[in-house]
Amino acid sequence: MAGGNFSPDSAINRLLKAVFCKASGIDVESNFEINISPAPKAEVAYGLVWDQTPLKYDKDKVREGFFLAGETFTDLDNKQYQWNERLTPTNISKGIKLLSENGNFKMDRLEDFIKTFNENADMAAIPRIPENPRILQDTGDHVNHECGKLRNTKEEEIHVEPLFITAIKKFLDELVNAWALA
Hints:
It contains seven helices and seven strands; from the N terminus they run αααββββαβββααα. It folds into two domains: about 1-55, no CATH class; about 55-180, no CATH class. By secondary structure, it is mainly alpha-helical. α6 (about 135-150) packs across α7.
């Protein structure tokens, strides 16, 4: 995609920066930079063998709601939670689902990702993500199905995954399947 040009000014890096900035709320014109490792293969190899990472997975923090939802959702009493609220094993166990309007899922963060990606795809010389309402609907159905499977599960058995992450994984999977069939 970048033709070996992985500088901070390469088109693919500008695409990554635009998508990241949109998702995080950082002004794309800010001094924020994505720096490319001068030795990416060595960095990955080192990460695979170094076992003294300072990052610790704190299960208690996860239970308290360490993750943002990533998409707007409702509980089974139709109480609405915003995309930037915490997603906890408690609300997952009680039952949640994506917000929908007129039978269509409201996945604003996923739609922002697609829009921002497409606005910057041409400069990176990569194909745009095609508009496909069926894939979005299938994605929403999948997210709700995954949430439904966890209803009434013991909280300590729930692995919390942001709804946006569940959605984008399914969305990309569906895109690959559509491209393979085309």
